[in-house]
Write a structure and sequence with these properties.
Residues 11-44 form the Glycosyltransferase N-terminal domain. Belongs to the UDP-glycosyltransferase family. This protein is of the alpha/beta class. It has helices at 19-34, 45-57, 66-69, 89-114, 133-138, 151-155, 160-165, 203-219, 236-240, 260-263, 272-278, 298-311, 350-354, 368-375, 390-400, 417-429, 431-468; strands spanning 10-14, 38-44, 71-76, 122-126, 142-147, 180-181, 190-191, 225-228, 245-247, 285-289, 314-318, 342-345, 359-364, 381-383, 404-406. The protein contains 17 helices and 15 strands. α12 (298-311) crosses α16. The longest helix has 38 residues, at 431-468. The chain is globular, with a radius of gyration of 22 Å. The structure holds uridine-5'-diphosphate. Uridine-5'-diphosphate binds at residues 18-20, 23, 265, 289, 291-293, 318, 347-348, 350-351, 367-370, 373.
Length: 475
């Protein structure tokens, strides 16, 4: 462990309660902890319980390695009562805003009074709950933001007031005038319904997403440092648009998969797919996963199952227990005759899967974590976005980096089995996608080192700030 003289910096890390946020923030925490800095990782209670249960079911144990020894997992209530709908994300957001500052203040007070050498010196808050920076400032901790999505998803946020003023966006964030928004020649433009907050099927939901983006816009100037899970060479123009951005990504899993805090899965991992992959020839398997939130209609699920079967290619498909519109999947008659051709799991060790030599391509919803994981393993994509930043990530994947193709929906929104089969064939038969993907892999791995360097710099800043407050005024 690195020797730290004087007060030991102590970072409180607070993710937004979703899988695609908790995972990268834990990866960041591990990087910070590796430098001997103490990290308290704060989830809301129901997420903490999910992670503990999933880790137990996957057979993981907490290990006393250097990083985990510096990370404490803890939880705070989310403020909801037993009668509140536990599936209502917007109620949750509102409840967090009302109650989390109070719970965190008490947590920090408890930590500070129990060991004055390990006072909380910094709060790293997920940008989605960036309003927590006020609590950080009140508690005399450095206010730091971490942004899980791409730099371009973040870059558009400070432009919202101008876009509203110029009439490009209406009051709930729908593109009005020119039908596209362009921040720079080198960033793919956003077309109608491709903005992070776009949700054309439910404008009430879009309004709430847009309000959330406006809150992020207010929080950004309060951050002393702004960290992003990207790397400069992936999206240089977007990084250049955000003054002071520290691109610490791509944050990837370390090789220590046994530890509870390392995985932070909400679902138990089914590692049986790894031995299944071992038996497949190199570059032969289509990996299919829609991340943690996307859902498919039963009709769409049928078409996908039949399209995979029709392709004749081996496939590994993650079918979460709530993928079919929140319920367990029902497969088309006779589908499970696929036998050796396909394997279905409820949750995969995704980074290990993507790094497996048998994987040929990734049929993905293009969440940013999945995008980075595919990129850093040189895997071509079949893109099938669902919502939020996924449409814009698709534009990077297909138009900017040219490492994949879109699986296009029909007018009724359904992606047919024939479209699925055709696009799978296209990726298998055109070597250009793999070549480009391998170039992107190189860029990512070069940046893993640079991201690590940035966290080392962050360590020094944290040590300085922890000791700056060593004046007695805040004891
Ligand atoms: N993931 C996983 N196993 C699975 C599916 C997903 O470990 O079977 C992980 C994936 O590696 C990624 C995260 O879950 O780190 C999903 O984040 P992403 O941003 O891709 O999508 P979201 O779930 O936020 O839509």
């Amino acid at each position: 462990m690195a020797v730290i003289k004087g007060k030991r910096p102590h970072v409180l890390v607070v993710p937004y309660p979703a899988q695609g946020h908790v995972k990268p923030l834990m990866k960041l925490s591990r990087q910070i902890a590796r430098h001997g800095i103490k990290v308290t990782f704060v989830n809301i209670e129901c997420i903490h319980e999910k992670i503990v249960a999933a880790a137990k079911m996957s057979g993981s144990e907490e290990e006393d390695d250097q990083e985990d020894g510096n990370i404490v997992l803890t939880s705070v209530p989310d403020g909801r009562g037993p009668d509140d709908d536990q599936n209502d994300t917007f109620k949750l957001l509102e409840s967090l805003r009302n109650t989390m500052p109070g719970f965190l203040t008490s947590l920090i007070e408890n930590i500070n009074s129990s060991n004055s050498d390990e006072r909380v010196s910094c709060v790293i808050a997920d940008v989605t709950i960036g309003w927590l920076l006020e609590t950080a400032q009140q508690m005399r901790a450095e206010p730091v933001l971490f942004s899980p999505p791409s730099a371009s998803a973040l870059a558009i946020i400070p432009h919202i007031p101008r876009l509203l003023e110029e009439g490009n966006l209406d009051s709930i964030g729908t593109i009005k005038k020119d039908d596209i928004i362009r921040l720079s020649e080198n960033i793919p433009p956003w077309r109608k319904n491709e903005l992070t907050w776009s949700f054309p099927a439910d404008l009430e939901t879009q309004k709430i997403f847009f309000e959330c983006s406006l809150r992020i816009e207010k929080a950004l100037p309060q951050a002393k440092w702004l960290l992003s899970n990207t790397c400069y060479d992936l999206e240089p123009s977007a990084c250049d648009l955000i003054p002071g951005l520290l691109p610490v990504g791509p944050l990837l899993e370390t090789n220590n998969l046994k530890s509870l805090s390392n995985s932070c899965n909400f679902h138990p991992e089914d590692a049986s797919c790894l031995s299944w992959l071992h038996d497949k020839p190199p570059g032969s398997v289509v990996y299919v996963s829609f991340g943690s939130l996307a859902v498919l209609s039963q009709q769409q699920l049928d078409e996908l199952a039949l399209g995979l079967e029709l392709s004749g290619r081996a496939f590994l498909w993650v079918v979460r227990s709530d993928l079919a519109n929140g319920s367990r999947a029902v497969y088309p008659d006779g589908f499970l005759r696929v036998g050796k051709l396909g394997k279905i799991v409820e949750w995969a060790p995704q980074e290990m899967v993507l790094s497996h030599r048998s994987i040929a391509c990734f049929l993905s919803h293009c969440g940013w974590n999945s995008t980075l994981e595919g990129l850093s393993n040189g895997v071509p994509f079949l893109s099938w976005p669902y919502f939020a930043d996924q449409h814009h990530n698709q534009n990077y994947i297909c138009d900017k980096w040219e490492i994949g193709v879109r699986i296009d929906p029909e007018e009724n929104g359904i992606r047919t089995r024939h479209e699925i089969k055709t696009k799978i064939e296209m990726v298998f038969s055109d070597a250009r996608f793999k070549e480009n993907a391998m170039k992107m892999k190189e860029i990512c791995w070069k940046s893993v080192g640079e991201g690590a360097l940035l966290t080392r710099i962050l360590r020094h800043l944290l040590i300085i700030s922890a000791n700056e407050h060593d004046c007695g005024c805040c004891l």
